[in-house]
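Dear colleague,

As promised, here are the two records you asked about, laid out in our usual form so they can be pasted straight into your sheet.

NAME FIELD: protein one
SEQUENCE, THEN STRUCTURE:
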Amino acid sequence: MIRRREVLTLLGAAGVAWPVGARAQHGERARRVGILLPVTDSDAEGQQRVSAFVRALQQLGWSLGKNVRIDYRLSGNKVETMRASAAELVTLGPDVILALSSAATALLLEATRAIPIVFTGVADPVAEGYVESLSRPGGNASGFTVYEYSIGEKWLELLKEIAPRVTRVAALRETVIGADLFATIQTLAPSMGLEIRAVDVRDADETERALTTFAQAQNGGVIATGGPRQSAQRDLITALAIRHRLPAIYNARFFVTAGGLISYGSDLIDQYRQAAGYIDRILKGDRLRRSFISRTILTSQKIRGPVASHRWRSNSDRMASLCAVNLMLYSPGASNQAGDVW
């Protein structure tokens, strides 16, 4: 069960202070929101995501401790802990639950088919059985996909762009992401002169052994496709890539913050702002069945500099000029909003 200190740690990043478990004032019934986070209380990325959600909810007129209360459960990546936390949240009877990963969504759906669930960071909610379709989710779950499988082609292209000599690629994967993304990468790789090797991410020791062994041969590179274990091991993975001089591309910008070279993927923080809008509608009486799954509308590419510190590049001058800028790439119809540019 989450402790008071953990709640205040999360909300402190948002500049929010509120009495935990406070009741609504003046007889108004406080609506209740549950959040299941597969992170620890020291995870800065998790704090930023929750802070973005809380701020967005406040901007929509919800006042913590007055007309809404939030129950948090932090579970880390341990499945049994996450399952127990999901059951605890359901027992509290919230009006809606925010699930911050595919694994959290799956366990919440095991625990309830009645309470509305809004998920973020899910790769393929249809294939994973969370919804019936993207346009008509059905059931009690809806939310945001983290990317489309076609992103695999972009990762391969960018890896060849930054390191033309790469011929072997270690693709980090997790079962929670599904097989289709890896299949896309594996199908496209030969046309680019690349050989793909799957590295299943489990515990940190296994990850270190696998990447160290892979790095013993020349012309290797890495693609981190994303998942809760990769997120938890991001410091290790980026450190191994640098140590073994493996050019690597990551699915999320927090890998770059941890020391990685380049990321290309959806703006995960923005998904939590948007999730607040979904939850606002539910708290105001909208039925979840009327909603639809939001595909990623904003993808972002961030390149870490300076390039000189990464010695594997054969064309350092060209890469130095490329790394001087952070590029924002938008899908059709997407608009640049304040706070989205890094």
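NAME FIELD: protein two
SEQUENCE, THEN STRUCTURE:
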Amino acid sequence: MKAQSLGMIALSALLAFTACGSDDDPDPQPSGDGSGDGSGDGNGDGSGDGDGDGCTGQVAVTFTVNDTNESFTPAGGLTWKGSFDIDADTNTLSVDPGWEAPFPLLFDDGTNGDETAGDNLWSRTVMVDVGEAATSFEYGLVRGAETNEDGVTAGDSEDWIWTQTDNGAFTVPGCATQDIDLPTFSIKEWGDVDVKVEVDLNVVASTWEFETPEGGSAPPPFMASDTLYVHGPAFGGWTNFLELVDDGENGDAEAGDGIAYALTSMIAGTELSPNAGLHSPGDTVPFVFARLRDADGETIREEYKDSDSNALTDGVTAFVQFPGDDDFTEVETGTEPGLESSNTNVTIPSATE
């Protein structure tokens, strides 16, 4: 790979996924059948809405995000995304197992369930119909999604910023009469530790194997001269792709030697990723390397994973740089254990480890 300037690609159309097994969606999606006990049509993660004759009415559900650290800019707002739709006319949630828009926006202006304008506590109160059967939902948080009066329109501009391992979840019991206040989700303050991920493209070229899709043609092999990208929350988000560089800077031994890298500081706080920041000891930083290629006018994303969709670590090295240090320190690189589809990750040590 030749020395390259910093590049970021944000995919604006649906990507086709091939190779390396089924690709995991960084924006978690529901998988249960959630059939419900009543006459509702619920499926997926949302259980049926159970329109039994014995119970009627609605309960209020409130969700709050604490950003008193001001880690995220308000531009574009915050969006409560989940296995539901919002009816803008009635402010009522209904089950949608496909996680399709519109979703409810959060507010920090003293309206729509927000108590105090400008306090960096973003809130939204919505209504849920009550029936004889329980109704269950899962959810997370999106920043910067394309917004309109009804909520958001689904698109690859979405930036999934939910940092917990599992989706949030709540259930409205059958015949419920009590309103529900969901646990507040707090956005942490950014730290001051930089992360560097590095990959030997020659090792990748000799390791990475691609599966031929059924009825399709075999993908071309990865060559050490090909461009490789990294994506993940520390590198501009899961829907953006930061191009690796091989420029002899930032501890890169030699420009053009086939060992390429990316830094969180390349993208954090820039126009391309205004709401990414540096890290703190104890943080786990997930990421995946990927190739983007064109196939008959369609962008194909292929992640550096095996046939079981688990991230490969061959040729991958990670480093951290603490404030005041001139050099980067190598840290252990691993994958997320026990998942059907895993990403690469590193955990930030303390400065004394």
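A couple of things worth noting about protein two: The chain has two domains: 8-24+189-347, 58-161. The longest strand covers residues 284-295.

Best,
R.
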